[in-house]
Amino acid sequence: MGRILLMLVALLLAGIPLVGYLWETLNAVLALHFEPRRLLISVPVLLALMMILLLVARTVQRLDPSHPPTERGT
Questions:
Q1: What is the pTM of this model?
Q2: Using an 8 Å Cβ cutoff, are 40 and 21 in contact?
């Protein structure tokens, strides 16, 4: 349980700034204020957030005893 809690704290510390940046970018785009530099920065930020979420999801699934291990490639 401690490992999951530590993972969630790390997710919050890393994820909140990333989500905040993407939220502000989305607000600017929806307000029709296009800043090419901001949009270019948003692509790696989005990829980083997706990688962090995927890592957390895999870790939680691996720690859950009710889910049997899945085979890769199927």
A1: 0.76
A2: no
The token duo for 16 is 């909140």
| Alpha-carbon span 6 to 14, nearest angstrom | 12
Report which secondary-structure segment, H or E, holds 10: helix 2-30
**Domain spans of the chain, in order of start:** 2-63
Q: Give 70's contacts (C-beta < 8 A, 6+ positions apart).
A: none
Quick one: CA dihedral 59, 64, 69, 74, positive or negative?
A: negative
CA distances from 8 to 4, 50, 54 (A): 6, 15, 13
C-alpha to C-alpha distance for 50 and 62, rounded to whole angstroms: 18
Predicted confidence band of residue 44 (pLDDT cuts 50, 70, 90): very high
d(CA 68, CA 61): 9
